Please model this.
Amino acid sequence: MRSHPIKFCILLLTALVTLFSPAVDHAQVARMEVTPFESLTLTDQDFLRGNEDGKRVTIAGELRLPRSAGGRLPAVILLHPSGGVSGAVTDWETYLLSTGVATFVVDSFTGRGIVNTINDQSQLGRLAQVEDAYRALALLAKDPRIDSNRVMLMGFSRGGQGALYASMLRFQKMHANPAVPGFAAYVAFYPDCSARYREDEDVAAVPIRILHGSADNYAPIAPCNAYVERLQAKGKDARIIVYPGANHIFDGRALKNPVFLPQAQTVRNCAWEEHEAGQLVNAATKQSFSYDDPCVERGAIIGYDANAAEQARTVVGELVTTVLKPARSP
Model:
């Protein structure tokens, strides 16, 4: 019998969460729900043009509610990396729940028939998770248990790109629901910042934080430094926190020994620019960007750094306390 795609999406996300979630999770959780919702699968060009007529798709998110004294809860929406929902993501769920914050992990892959994009990033547009994030925020805004004015967006690697660029007001005007309050803060773990979009300095007037390792050879830190400098020059509340010697996925406890991914596709030596009509152009060649461009390389290191991970938790905890203001603080 052919599986229904929505049911399959829910079952697979539930299995992934069960597989990767630490046992301590259950002590923090009052309720867990896996919820399907509709999004769009857009090419980057369609997204940049503001097209909302793309291919409709049903994806799913996992909502966890912390044990709480009651009242409407703040929440964090989490966007996964190229490898999909992983132990690093569910570790963050556990921590956030312990602070009294609800979590909503968006699975951008399963409903689209994608396992991961590590070796082939062309399977899904770089900005698709921005669309998913806006759709997830609109979904939570309808939930009477969630305070839609206190929702933070947090992403990792590919999902970090989504979390970072979801802050752009131009993107919000084109793709977000105007009736829904915007995110209260944006947190991007080791994102790729090699693209320069039109009006990318016009961002939401809320905290934007990038957490990055200096030794990252998957998504190097230099373009992110440059982007934050541009944002700060415009008076934006943007900061990059650098962890010396840390690699990509420095918060992944399962990677205590660094791992080399020989086929991992990386744009570490690329620079992209958005031109008219939403066209992404290779800044060096002035031609439309393609993952077949010579600047696209393979091979990257990922690895855990206990000190960086602990310091990152402190940074996130401070944002939770000052911005989301849960009933209990980390």
Notes: Residues 1-24 have pLDDT under 50 and may be disordered.
